[in-house]
Amino acid sequence: xxxxxxxxxxFRRARVRPTGRQKWARGWITWRAGRWIVAVLVxxxxxxxxxxxxxxxxxxxxxxxxxxxxxRLSAGEVQAIVDGLRGSNIFTAxxxxxxxxxxxxxxxxxxxxxxxxxxxxxxxxxxxxxxGLCRFGSDLYLVDxxxxxxxxxxxxxxxxxxxIIDGLMRPPSSGQPAxxxxxxxxxxxxxxxxxxxxxxxxxxxxIDVHDAHDAVVLLQGDAALLHLGDDHFLERLQSYVDLAGxxxxxVPEIDYVDLRFDERVYVRPVAEGRR
Length: 275
Known about the structure:
About 35% of the residues lie in helices and about 25% in strands. The protein is of the alpha/beta class and about 280 residues long. The chain has two domains: about 60-125, membrane protein fhac (Ubiquitin-like (UB roll), Roll); about 130-275, Rossmann fold.
């Protein structure tokens, strides 16, 4: 005689069919999820279409390039450098790349580009200001206060009345010669210090900065080398101008005048063999 054991629910789950309410709940969740998916797709497509319309809208294509702040460079020269901007979309145009391209021009010291809706790009140029003529071999180059050689000096720059600056180039350790930053800084300070006295500044024909701690100045019509040191340039040069007549009466041919010791002036006459 066999006996059937009762099924133990703890070890075997009974099969339960979902009720009608559960089926309805599942269907409602599926339907709601489907609506969200459709809505997201519609929004994404709408955004894509809107972006495409903006990117290809003719009204947003760059048609005008306005140049501000240029003096030496003409507006046409600046526009030629960034000519690829024309016709591109104002939102996607890579202004940073065109800024880098403009900075490659030797006359451009700093530049900024700005979008002006709907179709204009403004370019603000800050040009380099030459402070003198750097002697490089047998050639002269316009040089600015940072030691950048702007361009070779020639007839096209005849309006510049600038002193020749010797000693800016340091001997190359390897490769090409380079401008010495410390010497450039000294020359720039001399020129800046003399700027308030325009008449006196205009008389300076040469500045020698081979010694980065002693600027030597040569005045027009005067063969004496004037050692000014590395500060008080205006006061020292003015003191020489005030004393020049008396000094030349005593020493007709002066080799150099050392003005670095403010309370005393040392004068060396030209040696007999150098006359």
